[in-house]
């Protein structure tokens, strides 16, 4: 067993610090005190604690364990000790031979675990040794085992050495064993740990303390010397940049500082992250020995920390007069003057005298003044020491400052004297002292406040009395021309008001401030009823006006003080309808600021509800513009003019629609506010709701009783509100469509069902025109709502039964007839083209062609007619040249129509693919039939092939408007468009594989040229793949055989398989989107077709076929064959059964049920509000609150009224 160090007999009984404030190094051993935590060895808790504390080493055993087991430490740390778990070792030293308790620190450490008191028997009992596991650890505080290892934390140090990990491992608090040993001055432990490679400069995780820091902090001289002898660095810094000398100076350990300076004299110049030197730390503790030691070793006594404070300033902050005296005496030794140290200022420009005054230590202040401190020095805020002591109220120090010559009239940055500050902070004795010393009682600061004004503002009655008694001028005013009475009334200091009246009588009662307001105006604004009655009793004038011509009654109504309004009107009823400079009466002010209780009271008193301000706005307009719902309700109940116009000809509804107040708008509409008023800007209420995107207001307008008049309004440009609704508010437009389609029965299957459709808002008729520039009517412009729906993609509106009905009616009345005629002529053209193609003589390989590419005709050929000279005149078959003639005539006519169409549409003409198809069809057909009456040549046959292809495409386009076929044509075109977009990606694959196959298979005929290779690749992509034609053709592919196989396999995967799945995905996976897109496209073509037919008709025909209203009977069966054929050819009613059921109105039973449910909910709401009102009334009676309660009562009455109406 390893022996203990020589000095272990003196130190192995040392205990960790229990009370760090104890400073003695030679205290006698204290008897262990019993504790009430169950640590007695006979208790079960103590036995359990002993079982947990199995290891004598610091990592395992808490540092409260008695030190007699230290002798086994070396055996434990030695790898060959061979001790097994649970073995015990007898102590090597008798506990009775332990010396006195070591020196303890001054303050309790917050970073290390504090020891717990143990009983005497527990301290002396041997502990079993448990080797430290590589992944377990026991807390210093609790003795509990913790899991360590890789998850110990990124701040824990890790090294490869096994001994290092054992000795330098951190515990749960982030400290190693050497830290705890150094803190507790266990020299034996420290020696053994250092012998076993303990890191002498190992920093703690949370604080950065090294063992030397802890020894210096707690004043363990022997521990510090041991660490220094083993190479501990004096320059090691904590996380705050503090070195061991900082901690020693902070705790006043002069012996530690002396040892540190012996090792490194430059430590006296050390500074931490806040630039604090050891002398700054010593100033906090105030230790004279440390101070003298540091000064003797050359510390800079004028050094400043981060806030520019010197050590003398810090000593003043904590009141260490002897420390300051020591530093000032040593100043000449460093070439400084004591007065210079006293005149230094910090970041706030405070001197040592400012700092010392905050402590209230008279002796320190006197010492500084005797030493030469400036008694009138000003800090950053301009405060002198006398200002600061005036705020504190210490008259002793104030007398001392005045005795040393403090200027009593010195002003700070706000020009406040010490008397101002004393009066503001209610320092009565200080005010008396300053007045006795000759302070100016009427001194003014930068806002012209006198001490009396300050006291009246803050409500200090005794100060006011003292100042008045000492002769303060009560007529002085501040920069706002407010007197002391103004401030007292404004702040509600009734007692001071009484004092002022006693002192001055009624002299200040009618005084006016800069706004020409008297104290009565102030009382009306603050709602102090007691002061108001007092002022009226004193004779204050009620009809005085300020610079805005407002009386106190105006002020009370503006701020909503009902009690003040009642008192003022009771005192002077003739002020009821007086107005201010803006024409605002008390009623208008109360309405504008939303005080319904005052509005109701004024109306009951006789206020003029029709009064207007200078902008001609009534009370209702003002309340509505500010969204005061309750106030509007009160005014409407009192028959306010709901359509009154202001100067801009705005009604209250205009103002509400501009601001977007939904509830007020609904109240006005329920009161039948007119919707046909146009203001000076040429806008209606609905226009403002649409332009400002107030959807709920727009819905309320279009669902009101006067919705027809709202939609009949046109602005100055002739735009219909319906167009704006479709563009910006489709949901509101949908409500309009519902209004325009009325059903006679709620049951959609009723045999007598009649549907009345009003088309006037979708199609105003042929006489409807828009206004262009310079207010010139443009007869070519006409509103058609369905085109607007298509322009802004309003599918939901377009699918409504009303637009479908108008399409059906126009189609069946004229558009279908025109279309079928056009289609009939196209069928004739198509038949002629087909006949001409099939009957004309084809060019074969046996025929001889002339230089023009035409067939050499034999004179004996009966298929042609020759003249006398043997020249072909025409084709012998009359049907051929008739077909040829009809094809030419139709194409020329179609080209003329397209040209006229181009002139009409201009740029929009080129956006339609059908126009390109039609032009190319005509051009190719004309080439095909040229020259006339002659058989087609080679060029003509090529054009004929193109013409026949385009004729088929054009035929498909003709089918688009037809209801039964058009949707599928649209789906085909949409799918083709999507597929072409996808094929853009595949073009690069075609090129890549085509060129690769050309290189590998160029010996085969199908791949002999790049063009053939690309064409063959395209055919193979479509599925025409024959492996034997490539690899089994008997032609050697070497040296490209292997590469060809690989490319062929890649081609099979990437081209046919992927392309097929892509095509299926486009056609099937997005079928719903394709269907919707095709439907919208069909509707667009149908609308454009119908609109094009109608606008090309003369005006008298347009008027003849126009229908503003239609009544339909969809459930009446019509068995006539012609009607069925007509519906098939020209289209029937577009309102299907599904549409009827979807858009049908609820039944009467459903309406009754819903009304009953709403009535129950309103009844419950009324009951809840009644209970709340009763509760709040009791509270209001207690606290004298009336205004808010009246508003709640009005709201409850409104709800009750609504309930009764329902």
From TrEMBL:
GO terms for cellular component: transmembrane transporter complex. It comes from the Eukaryota. The gene is LOC110979688. PANTHER family: PWWP DOMAIN-CONTAINING PROTEIN, TRANSIENT RECEPTOR POTENTIAL CATION CHANNEL PROTEIN PAINLESS. This is Transient receptor potential cation channel subfamily A member 1-like isoform X1. One of its GO terms (molecular function) is transmembrane transporter activity. Keywords: ANK repeat, Ion channel, Ion transport, Membrane, Repeat, Sensory transduction, Transmembrane, Transmembrane helix, Transport. The chain crosses the membrane at residues 814-836, 907-927, 939-959, 979-1001, 1046-1068. Pfam families: Ank (PF00023), Ank_2 (PF12796), Ank_4 (PF13637). Residues 20-30 have a biased composition (Basic and acidic residues). GO terms for biological process: monoatomic ion transmembrane transport. The keyword Metal-binding does not apply. Residues 1-59, 82-160 are annotated as: Disordered. ANK repeats lie at residues 173-205, 207-239, 240-266, 274-306, 348-380, 381-413, 414-446, 447-479, 515-547, 548-580, 582-614, 615-647, 648-680.
């Amino acid at each position: 067993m390893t022996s203990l160090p020589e000095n272990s007999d003196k130190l192995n009984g040392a205990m960790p610090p229990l009370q760090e404030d104890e400073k003695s190094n030679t205290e006698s051993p204290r008897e262990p005190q019993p504790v009430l935590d169950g640590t007695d060895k006979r208790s079960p808790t103590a036995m359990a604690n002993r079982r947990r504390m199995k290891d004598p080493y610091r990592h395992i055993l808490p540092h409260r364990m008695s030190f007699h087991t230290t002798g086994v430490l070396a055996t434990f740390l030695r790898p060959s000790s061979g001790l097994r778990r649970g073995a015990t070792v007898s102590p090597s030293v008798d506990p009775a031979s332990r010396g006195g308790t070591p020196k303890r620190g001054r303050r309790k450490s917050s970073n290390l675990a504090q020891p717990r008191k143990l009983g005497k028997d527990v301290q002396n009992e041997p502990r079993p040794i448990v080797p430290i596991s590589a992944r377990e650890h026991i807390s210093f505080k609790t003795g509990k085992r913790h899991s360590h290892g890789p998850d110990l934390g990124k701040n824990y140090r890790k090294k490869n050495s096994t001994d290092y990990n054992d000795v330098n491992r951190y515990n749960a608090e982030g400290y190693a064993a050497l830290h705890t040993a150094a803190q507790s001055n266990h020299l034996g432990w420290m020696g053994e740990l250092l012998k076993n490679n303990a890191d002498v400069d190992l920093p703690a995780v949370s604080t950065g303390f090294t063992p030397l820091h802890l020894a210096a902090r707690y004043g363990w001289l022997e521990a510090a010397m041991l660490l220094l002898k083993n190479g501990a660095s004096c320059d090691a810094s904590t996380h705050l940049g503090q070195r061991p000398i900082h901690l020693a100076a902070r705790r006043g350990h002069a012996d530690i500082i002396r040892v540190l300076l012996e090792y490194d004299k430059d430590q006296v110049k050390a500074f931490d992250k806040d630039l604090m030197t050891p002398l700054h730390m010593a100033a906090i503790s105030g230790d004279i020995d440390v101070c003298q030691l540091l000064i003797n070793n050359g510390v800079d006594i004028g050094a400043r920390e981060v806030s520019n404070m010197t050590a003398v300033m810090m000593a003043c902050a904590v009141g260490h007069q002897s420390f300051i005296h020591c530093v000032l005496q040593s100043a000449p030794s460093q070439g400084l003057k004591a007065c210079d140290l006293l005149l230094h200022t910090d970041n706030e420009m405070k001197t040592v005298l400012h700092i010392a005054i905050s402590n209230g230590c008279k002796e320190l202040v006197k010492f500084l003044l005797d030493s030469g401190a400036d008694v009138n020095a000003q800090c950053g805020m301009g405060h002198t020491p006398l200002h600061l002591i005036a705020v504190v109220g210490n008259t002793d120090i104030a007398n001392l400052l005045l005795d040393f010559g403090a200027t009593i009239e010195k002003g700070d940055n706000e020009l406040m004297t010490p008397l101002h500050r004393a009066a503001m902070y209610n320092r009565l004795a200080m005010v008396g002292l300053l007045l006795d010393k000759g302070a100016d009682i009427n001194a003014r600061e930068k806002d012209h406040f006198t001490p009396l004004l300050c006291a009246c503002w803050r409500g200090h009655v005794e100060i006011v009395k003292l100042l008045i008694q000492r002769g303060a001028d009560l007529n002085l005013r501040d920069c706002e021309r407010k007197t002391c009475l103004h401030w007292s009334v404004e702040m509600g200091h009734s007692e001071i008001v009484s004092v002022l009246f006693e002192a001055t009588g009624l002299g200040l009662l009618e005084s006016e401030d800069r706004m020409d307001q008297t104290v009565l105006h102030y009382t009306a604004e603050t709602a102090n009823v007691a002061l108001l009655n007092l002022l009226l009793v004193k004779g204050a004038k009620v009809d005085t006006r300020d610079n805005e011509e407002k009386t106190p009654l105006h002020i009370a109504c503006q701020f909503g003080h009902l009690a003040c309004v009642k008192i003022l009107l009771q005192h002077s009823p003739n002020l009821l309808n007086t107005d201010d400079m803006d024409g605002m009466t008390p009623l208008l002010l109360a309405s504008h600021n939303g005080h319904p209780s005052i509005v109701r009271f004024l109306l009951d008193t006789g206020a003029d509800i029709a009064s207007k301000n200078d902008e001609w706005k009534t009370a209702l307009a003002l309340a509505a513009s500010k969204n005061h719902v309750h106030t509007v309700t009160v005014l409407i109940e009192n028959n306010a003019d709901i359509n009154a116009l202001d100067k801009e000809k705005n009604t209250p509804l205009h103002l509400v629609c501009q601001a977007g107040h939904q509830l007020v708008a609904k109240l006005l509409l329920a009161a039948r506010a007119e919707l046909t008023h146009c203001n000076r800007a040429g806008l209606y209420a609905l226009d403002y709701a649409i332009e400002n995107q107030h959807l709920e207001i727009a819905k309320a307008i279009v669902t009101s009783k006067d919705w027809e008049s709202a939609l009949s309004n046109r602005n100055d440009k002739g735009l219909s509100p319906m167009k704006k609704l479709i563009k910006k508010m489709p949901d509101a437009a949908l409500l309009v469509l519902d209004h325009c389609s009325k059903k006679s029965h709620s049951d959609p299957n009723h045999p007598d069902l009649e549907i009345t459709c009003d088309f006037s808002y979708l199609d105003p008729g042929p006489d409807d025109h828009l206004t262009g520039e310079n207010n010139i009517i443009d007869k070519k412009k006409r509103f058609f709502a369905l085109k607007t729906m298509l322009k802004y993609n309003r599918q939901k509106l377009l699918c409504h039964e009303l637009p479908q009905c108008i399409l059906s009616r126009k189609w069946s009345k004229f558009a279908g007839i025109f279309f079928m005629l056009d289609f009939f002529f196209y069928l004739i053209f198509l038949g002629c083209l087909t006949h001409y193609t099939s009957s004309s003589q084809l060019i074969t390989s046996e025929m001889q062609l002339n230089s023009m590419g035409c067939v050499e005709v034999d004179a004996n050929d009966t298929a042609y007619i020759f003249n006398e000279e043997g020249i072909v005149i025409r084709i012998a078959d009359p049907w051929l040249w008739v077909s040829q003639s009809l094809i030419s005539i139709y194409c020329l006519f179609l080209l003329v129509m397209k040209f006229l169409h181009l002139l009409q549409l201009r740029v929009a003409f080129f956006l339609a693919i059908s126009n390109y198809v039609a032009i190319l069809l005509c051009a190719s057909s004309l080439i095909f039939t040229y020259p006339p009456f002659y058989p087609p040549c080679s060029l003509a046959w090529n054009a004929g092939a193109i013409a026949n292809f385009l004729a088929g495409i054009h035929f498909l386009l003709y089918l688009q408007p037809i209801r039964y076929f058009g949707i599928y044509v649209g789906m085909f075109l949409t799918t083709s468009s999507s597929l072409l977009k996808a094929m853009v990606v595949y073009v690069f694959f075609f090129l890549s594989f085509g060129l690769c196959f050309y290189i590998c298979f160029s010996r085969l005929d199908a791949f002999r040229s790049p063009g053939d290779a690309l064409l063959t690749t395209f055919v193979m992509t479509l599925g025409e793949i024959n492996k034997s034609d490539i690899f089994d053709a008997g032609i050697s592919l070497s040296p490209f055989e292997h590469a060809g196989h690989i490319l062929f396999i890649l081609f099979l995967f990437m081209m046919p398989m992927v392309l097929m799945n892509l095509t299926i995905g486009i056609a099937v996976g997005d079928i719903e989107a394709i269907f919707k897109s095709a439907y919208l496209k069909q509707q667009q073509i149908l609308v454009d077709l119908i609109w094009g037919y109608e606008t090309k008709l003369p005006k008298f025909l347009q008027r003849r076929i126009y229908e503003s209203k239609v009544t339909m009977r969809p459930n009446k069966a019509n068995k006539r064959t012609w009607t069925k054929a007509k519906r098939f050819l020209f289209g029937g009613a577009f309102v299907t059964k599904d549409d009827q059921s979807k858009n049908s109105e609820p039944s009467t039973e459903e309406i009754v049920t819903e009304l009953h449910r709403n009535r129950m909910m309103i009844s419950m709401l009324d009951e809840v509000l009644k209970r709340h009102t009763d509760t709040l009334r009791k509270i209001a009676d207690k606290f004298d609150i009336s205004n808010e309660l009246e508003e709640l009562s009005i709201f409850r009455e409104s709800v009750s009224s609504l309930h009764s109406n329902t």
